[in-house]
Amino acid sequence: MSNNLLKGKKGIIFGALNEQSIAWKVAEKAHEQGAEFVLTNAPIAMRMGEIQKLAESCNAEIIPADATSTEDLEALIQGAMDKLGVKLDFILHSIGMSPNVRKGKAYDDTNYDWFHKTLDVSALSLHKTLQTAKKMDAINEWGSVIALTYIAAQRIFPDYNDMADAKSLLESITRSFGYHYGEAKKVRVNTISQSPTPTTAGSGVGGFDAFINYAEDMSPLGNANAEDCANYCIAMFSDLTRYVTMQNLFHDGGFSMTGVSKKVMDRFL
Ligand SMILES: NC(=O)c1ccc[n+]([C@@H]2O[C@H](COP(=O)([O-])OP(=O)(O)OC[C@H]3O[C@@H](n4cnc5c(N)ncnc54)[C@H](O)[C@@H]3O)[C@@H](O)[C@H]2O)c1
Fold it and tell me: Is residue 3 part of a domain?
């Protein structure tokens, strides 16, 4: 169903790897709501992924970029403005990767080179994207930038490992840059804190299957899925949310505010 909520809006969507990706669903919904955008992902993901299929269905161009490289980001943002013909209205940062998680290295036995990589890919990439866009004056007033995060930024989830620290930093960058970009150019920056979702990045976290079931039973509404997360992103890109900025917005079926649920309590009777 389209209400043309994003009619005339132009943007960049990072992180659509395959049909499970949250960014994939955001691209489909953004297209449905009348937006035009460029899709981007790391060059290596481009080879493995199915992004071409998505690009065709959304009538979108693809520009590869490693989100840790400011040169790549400059070329991406310039390329997107050239292809779309105007400045941007929205950016989705849907990027996460931890070599420590991938390689099963414990939090208290971390490999610091990998830890740096986690922070660079999963958090600093947002700062780099915002700083590059701001220097290039690439985003229109009231433009909206969304990054995806997880509640392990606030509470301990042991298997989330160094990604928890990366998400804390991501949320902090959102507040700090949201202030500076808001004051200078009325650009808004927010994170959406999503329920556990079966994607390539999500399923890579240890114990994911047990954990997603636990979160389902702890959330009064159940876990929010990728498609509903995409709907929330569209609302945040639209003009209906113009004064929302510097926020961490939970999209988790109520998980973050639940101390314990009846379903979980019943297991301990
Ligand atoms: N799946 C979940 O349970 C869950 C929950 C909350 C938040 N999130 C967050 O949602 C976002 C999207 O993840 P997803 O679950 O859709 O998984 P996904 O694996 O489909 O997406 C992660 C993306 O990050 C990209 N990426 C990795 N390194 C990159 C780099 N150097 N440059 C550019 N892109 C790079 C990958 O290619 C991939 O497309 C991530 O930030 C993730 O942490 C996911």
Answer: no
Ligand 1 atom nearest residue 163's Cα: 43
Q: What angle do CA 88, 131, 90 make, to 5 degrees?
A: 25
| Ligand 1 in reach of 98 Cβ (< 6 A) | no
Radius of gyration (Cα) for the chain, nearest Å? 18
Ligand 1 atom closest to the Cα of residue 93 is 41
Task: Give nearest CA residue, ligand 1 atom 22.
Answer: 95
64 CB less than 6 Å from ligand 1?
no
User: Domain of 258: which CATH number?
Assistant: 3.40.50.720
How many domains are contained in the chain?
A: 1
User: Is 36 part of any domain?
Assistant: yes
Domain assignment present for 2? no
Domain holding 255, by residue range, is 10-268
Q: Is 171 exposed, middle or buried (CB count within 10 Å of its CB: 0-12, 13-18, 19+)?
A: buried
144 close to ligand 1 (CB < 6 Angstrom): no
pLDDT confidence tier of residue 65, bands split at 50, 70 and 90? very high
**Is residue 166 a part of any domain in this protein?**
yes
Single-letter code of the amino acid located at 126: L
- Arithmetic mean of pLDDT, 127-153: 98
Sheet holding 61-62, edge to edge: 61-62, 36-40, 10-14, 88-93, 139-149, 188-194, 248-251
Check whether 48 has a pLDDT greater than 80: no
